[in-house]
Design goal:
6-stranded mixed beta sheet, 2 domains, 13 strands, homodimer, 7-stranded mixed beta sheet, 423 residues, 9 helices, 40% helix
Chain lengths: 423, 423
């Protein structure tokens, strides 16, 4: 690789809000999105909420000359809604479906059926290994009483761990998507602090677009205005995050967002705003590679975020266990009721009533059984994530006791040598 | 690292068959397993089918002086049953739960409830990065008519991809576990060919133990003799697999298995046999690092295995879609029946019969709905894995057309440079 190596990457990200039968002007918006992507000719276009594979196939055909490589990440009952179009060949791809993703009985919210996931693409560009991640986390339906908070924190941790473990040999890491997290939310801080990813909106010198970089705006005609009432400028929940891992330097030259309107037809491309980033990757000659410095402040910030996340997951485990116990009692009660009904039916007297009540009792039993199984699974999933956090926290505390300076680096497995038998 | 660097690793693996209330002599076997592990003082002990976390906690307490680090991988409703005890500090761990793992309505088989997964541990030993994977794939209940074959192939692919993407910076990779795959089964060949892992039993010069390295033996008193009838020596489904990735050479000095009996008390430790391997890792000075050579034969073997797996998954997708369609028809029929019953109940005449039939109809509807959702999810999961295989196959064919020699290396992402805009 030449020492003057420099690579410019133009990235597009959009949550397309393309739900068959439900999303307004879906066909027209898909068509205009395709035209726009063809016209702009980005290096990578990462899309979320493309729920119908027919829409993906339509875009694939339309974008084929400009974006020869494309992939749809299949998962869940409906989704995952994630897809990607690339100007450059995709070397490898894989996906990781989140262990926890809402509740199947919250049918009106539907997230459980989507199989929310993170998709990974590996690209080799002029000798540079680029790991691109695209994701969509669980939606937030009520910020005051958010019953999905724990699941979203667990997803953010799973996402951070997946990126951490799969990007160890990458030169550049890029994460785009709808995180359904505000910049200061626990999940967002956890993700950024654990992976070391930088936020394009905060880093760029040249931003043009919506006020405060928001990606859901009140002026967008598809947005539910009531939901955005507490946020006069809108909310920022879609992100372009990046980092360079080794010997490279990455910066965001420009960041643009759409602003809730389309200059031509008047209706926007989606209920979310699109993000368009121009990233520049440069090679740092070995003698100029800055050694990572991690101060006390950075370390204690990481530790406090890890603690906060641990507490959140611990609460979630307790709640999931409460539901399991409750469902267990209902199962016991249902069995008792069934035995009583069988005895009544055999004895005569209120025989017909007993037979009539038999099937609802079986229904109750099966329902409670399903709730039991689901929340047991939830408790196990949350315990798994909590154990990982606990381990990282334990190591952070050990290091604090030893007074080590470079804790985040050590925690992230960049330091070696524990001493074992060597012959 | 010294050029004469050499590391000896003693590994223990056992599927413990520790199902609360069901497995015979569980408490006694756990106690003896703990004593044995303490006595032998392995570097790593990897266990499967430790279904109760109480058993894990018991072992943890017992093994604490010899194995200060331990972890249980939590997932599913019951499991995952995977745990690990290590003499050396564990730097990092994470887990990946398989997308597909049997059917929830096959309650008597129970695999769906276990949340089968792969656990990853990262250890740093004298500057060497060791990635250890422990797993347990879906059981095989009927080899002649194996309804779980597709799921097991999909799991093997997911496992291979997880190892491939998370071990890129590891020096040594180790995979232990109960794969529920015979050595020549498609899943086993796919896993070995895609990851490049070597089989300790086939590689070692010094093997002592069961005939043909089998890990389920007819002479083991806990084994269902009828199931092993077609295999007079038993079957080999538990493995120690390994590879060195960069600048290191790994070999299996010795491999031992238990032989279905315990020399002292007479009853074995489990229905599976334990594997005990001594691995030796040596440093290869840069000038002696052999360049990987991948010939035509190797390439065409990989392509043919990938094709075979693709066909298997494609059959699985078709079958899952058939079930979805079937459940869809049943849902339609159930709705029709419900409407008819409502009309009859309103009209009089056979009113009581109509009311009586109402609840079973609702039950039928809900049941069919659950089957629909489950198989839809199955089809999406299998499609995801099939798309990954399709991509790899496509690239293999492209390379064949170009007449490239080092295809597996290229497919595994070891070759760089595609040509993109460079300024």
């Amino acid at each position: 690789m030449k020492p003057t190596f420099s690579l410019r990457l133009r990235i597009f990200n959009l949550n397309c809000w393309a739900i068959p039968y439900l999303s307004k002007h879906r066909g027209d918006r898909m068509k205009r999105l395709g035209d726009f992507l063809n016209m702009e000719s980005f290096d990578l276009a990462l899309l979320e909420e493309v729920w119908s594979e027919q829409d993906f196939q339509y875009l694939r055909q339309k974008l084929l000359p400009t974006y020869p490589a494309a992939h749809y990440f299949s998962s869940g009952v409906i989704g995952s809604g994630l897809c990607v179009f690339s100007k450059h060949p995709i070397q490898e791809f894989t996906q990781h479906v989140y262990t926890l993703n809402g509740y199947p009985y919250m049918i009106h919210h539907g997230d459980w059926f989507c199989g929310k996931a993170v998709g990974l693409l590996v690209l080799h560009l002029s000798g540079l290994v680029l790991n691109v991640y695209v994701t969509h986390l669980h939606a937030e339906y009520n910020r005051q009483k958010d019953i999905y908070l724990t699941h979203r924190v667990a997803q953010a941790w799973e996402l951070a761990q997946f990126i951490h473990h799969t990007s160890k040999k990458a030169d550049v890491v890029l994460l785009c998507g709808d995180l359904n997290l505000h910049p200061k939310d626990l999940g967002c801080r956890l993700l950024k602090e654990w992976t070391g990813l930088h936020d394009a909106y905060l880093e760029t010198q040249d931003f043009k677009g919506s006020e405060e970089g928001c990606t859901m705006l009140p002026e967008n005609c598809y947005v539910n205005q009531r939901e955005l009432e507490p946020f006069p400028f809108g909310i920022r929940i879609d992100y372009v995050l990046y980092k360079a891992v080794s010997g490279f330097y990455i910066s965001c030259k420009t960041l643009r967002t759409t602003t809730g309107r389309d200059p031509h037809s008047g209706t926007p491309l989606s209920d979310h705003e699109a993000l368009m980033a121009t990233l520049c990757v440069r090679h740092i000659p070995p003698q100029h590679t800055p050694s990572p410095t991690h101060g006390l402040a950075e370390r204690s910030r990481l530790v406090s975020i890890l603690k906060e996340a641990w507490i959140e997951l611990d609460l979630g485990v307790a709640q999931a266990r409460w539901w399991t116990t409750f469902a267990g009692y209902v199962i016991g009660l249902g069995l008792l009721l069934l035995a009583l009904l069988c005895a009544l039916a055999a004895g005569g007297g209120v025989r017909e009533v007993a037979i009539l009540l038999w099937t609802p009792s079986v229904g109750l039993l099966l329902g409670a059984g399903a709730v039991y199984i689901f929340h047991m699974q939830e408790a196990k999933g949350l315990s798994g994530a909590r154990a990982e956090l606990q381990h990282v926290l334990g190591r952070a505390r050990e290091a604090q006791d030893l007074g080590l300076e470079s804790q985040p680096a050590l925690l992230l497995g960049q330091q070696e040598g524990d001493g074992t038998e060597e012959q």
